[in-house]
Amino acid sequence: MKVKYYDLENKRAFITGGGSGIGASIVEHFCEQGSEVYFIDINEDESKKLIEDIKNKNYSLPTFIKCDLLNIKELQKTIADIISNKGPIDILINNAANDTRHKIDDVTEEYWNERINVNLRHFFFTVQSVKKSMIDNGGGAIINMGSTSWMVGQGGMAAYTAAKSGVVGLSRSFARDLGEFNIRVNSVVPGWVMTQRQIDLWLNDESEKELMKRQCLKEKLMPHELAQAVLFFSSEQSSGCTNQSYVVDKGWL
């Protein structure tokens, strides 16, 4: 543990897509802080493995709930059950996404809608679902995970970049609407993070050489570096921060 955020201890955090990648690191970091963590994912095997890893580190154990984010009613019920049975959610982390590449001519109306639903739609409905309990509880923190892909003009995944650019507008709108209730809304914007998925699918000698050329810091960006930023924006150490998009990309130009 590099930093102890005492105000995060026992805080109730809800994290989407927490079973692997950046989400898994976020879950682990909150557990290390002693938070009460609930995370959803569709991958049971990865999620159970994560819980075992956290158990072996003697951190607070999270609660995993299998949930398909494409089913908004299921998502809303999952959140409602936590609030009803455990209490208000203090921290919401909208992390779940999928950056599968696609060619322009291959995109159908159905595929487009599915990509937007996977990468943006559920962000709105999780916030809608936690809003009342946060207001009743005197405030909260919401962090929406974005991407620099649209900022740098990444090609080959137009639906994904469109959705991720939408995260910024959605976050700023929520920040304005919820600020009077002491609810802070920020987005954390990753560069190219070396999750196992990225390494397996897209990292090779050529892409790594280009990455090192474009980044100011000549080292790979790792999931824990995003989790560290998320912890900061979740804690009262960032009490003056809302309506912001904070880029963590090692200076990707």
Question: What would the keywords be for this entry?
Answer:
253 residues, alpha/beta, Rossmann fold, seven-stranded parallel sheet, 8 helices, 46% helix
Question: What would a concise description of this structure say?
Answer:
Helix content is 46%, strand content 15%. With 253 residues, the protein is α/β, with parallel strands linked by helices.
Question: What topology does this entry show?
Answer:
Elements: E1 12-16, H1 21-32, E2 36-41, H2 44-56, E3 63-66, H3 72-86, E4 91-94, H4 109-136, E5 140-145, H5 158-178, E6 183-190, H6 196-201, H7 205-214, H8 223-234, E7 245-248
Parallel strand pairs: 1-2, 1-4, 2-3, 4-5, 5-6, 6-7
Helix pairs in contact: 1-8, 3-4, 4-5
Q: What report would you give on this structure?
A:
By secondary structure, the protein is α/β, with parallel strands linked by helices. The protein has one domain: Rossmann fold, CATH 3.40.50. 46% of the residues lie in helices and 15% in strands. It contains eight helices and seven strands. It has helices at residues 21-32, 44-56, 72-86, 109-136, 158-178, 196-201, 205-214, 223-234; strands at 12-16, 36-41, 63-66, 91-94, 140-145, 183-190, 245-248. It has a seven-stranded parallel sheet, with helices on both faces. Helix 1 packs across helix 8 (223-234), helix 3 packs parallel to helix 4 (109-136) and helix 4 packs parallel to helix 5 (158-178). The model has no long low-confidence stretch (mean pLDDT 95).
Poorly predicted spans: none
For the largest beta sheet, what order do the strands appear in spatially?
3-2-1-4-5-6-7
Main beta sheet: 7 strands, parallel
CATH architecture descriptor:
3-Layer(aba) Sandwich
Discrete helix count: 8
> Helix proportion of residues, in percent?
40-55%
- Domain module count: 1
Task: Give the oligomer, counting copies of the same chain as homo and different chains as hetero.
Answer: single chain
**CATH top level label:** Alpha Beta
**How much strand content do the residues show?**
5-15%
CA-CA gap between termini: 30 Å
Query: What is the assigned CATH homologous superfamily?
Result: NAD(P)-binding Rossmann-like Domain
Mean pLDDT across all residues, rounded? 95
Helix-strand string: EHEHEHEHEHEHHHE
Looking at the structure, what is the overall shape?
globular
Structural class: alpha/beta
Radius of gyration: 17 Å
> What fold name stands as the CATH topology?
Rossmann fold
